[in-house]
Amino acid sequence: MKQSSFSSALLQTLPLTIMLLIAVLLISLVVAMTEEPIKQVETERHYRFIRSVMPLDYDNDMVTDMLEINAVGDLGTDQAVPFYRARKQGKPVGLVLLPVAADGYNGPIKLALGIDYEGNVLGVKIMEHSETTGFGELIHQDKSNWLMTFRGKSLNKLPKDEWYISSDGGSIDGVSGASISSAAVMKAIANSLAYYRRIRDSLY
Amino acid sequence: MVIQSKQQANHNEANSSDESFSVILLRQNPLLVQLIGLSPLLAVSYSLVNSLATGLIFSVVFLITSILVSISRRLIPAEISVPCYVIITTTIVTSIDFILQAWRPELREVLWIYLPIIAANCLIIDRLQVFAAQNPLIRTIPHVLFNCLAVLLVLMILGASRELIGTGALFQDAHLLFGLDETAIIQAESIVTDNVTSPITFSLATLPAGAFIFLGLLIALKQLIFQPDNP
Q1: Alpha carbon distance B67, B144 (integer Å)
Q2: Which residues are A109's β-sheet partners?
């Protein structure tokens, strides 16, 4: 009795196992087929994001006119940071860089920062973050307009020691409930602007 | 005398042999009469293009699954039938998911999680268990095709009316399904958008609550037109 019920159970699982094997085979086929196009979609999305913080007029291909600079900590990361340069008729218009706000509440926050040649902020967006839902994530461009308040700011108009939230002695408002996240992003933008100012002449 | 609920009677009738398209459309309509597997289909049918896309994907999944189950119905032991259906359905849905991500990524994002949910659609599992597993291919295919067509029609009516009344225009997101390069589609889209407009806009129509309201109205309308004597 015990023998037959075991073998009958085995017999039942056989079609299931065969089916699973076929299913896995089929899905791996589809994944292999679609890997290339999906990668292209991702890259295109990435570049569209980067272009969205450069509203100025330019005539070169910003994403190929790229420089990778390892600022060893100045830009929030030990890895090379891409600088996508925008030019019009050969003259530099501005660039987009991807600094990292290393002091986020739950980890580093990847940013896309667009600045014009003089060093004014054209736009800033968050690319990746792991901030807390409902609190830190409120700094994200989809959740609030906070990042838009950086447009037009520069170290010329606002010296570096003012780039902190009010409770830290600065003059920029953070997002309530997200003070650590706001402070991290603020610091990253200020550091990026300062770094840009230092190396601008070698960038273009 | 056996007292059956209306639901039971409908379900039993849905399992009997050889129905014509009009019977399936009117008396056994999965979305208007059987009221089964509504959530994923209603959730994204707030525009004509979305309804078309969802209906087509649903039909492809349903058709392929039913064909496979009908072919292999003698090989699958009854005890593990449902897990087998789930394996087949999930494989097909996952494949479609990857294909959409590669060639229509915006559409895939709009459909959000309701595309994977089609893998667990009660309508499909029910029809598989009750019809495809017991009928040869020659009878399963028309049955499934009629059901898919009925679902597609209802979804498109819902989608079109919800989009029209909800946003005042039609076909506004045609690029999701047809791609941005198709200039003919864009021209056709603008012809429809310019000439088919609604003077009233009622945003509730595009929200989930509106989905159920419009569904109820559609059911009532169908009863009124086709079965006025049937309470």
Answers
A1: 9
A2: A101
Give the separation between CA B57 and CA B73, rounded to whole angstroms: 24
By the CB < 8 Å criterion, does A38 face chain B?
yes
Q: Would you call A16 an interface residue with chain B, using a CB distance cutoff of 8 Å?
A: yes
pLDDT digits (tens, 9 = 90+) for A4-48: 678 877 877 888 898 899 999 999 999 999 999 999 999 998 998
Contacts of A9 in chain B (CB under 8 A): none
Phi, psi of A85 (to 5 degrees): -95, 140
A34 vs B79, B80, B99: nearest CB:
B99
Q: Could you tell me if B78 lies within 8 Å of chain A, comparing CB atoms?
A: no
pTM of the model: 0.78
- Let me know: does B92 contact B65? Beta carbons within 8 Å: yes
Cα-Cα-Cα-Cα torsion B8, B10, B13, B18, nearest 10 degrees, comes to -150
Q: Report the complex ipTM.
A: 0.75
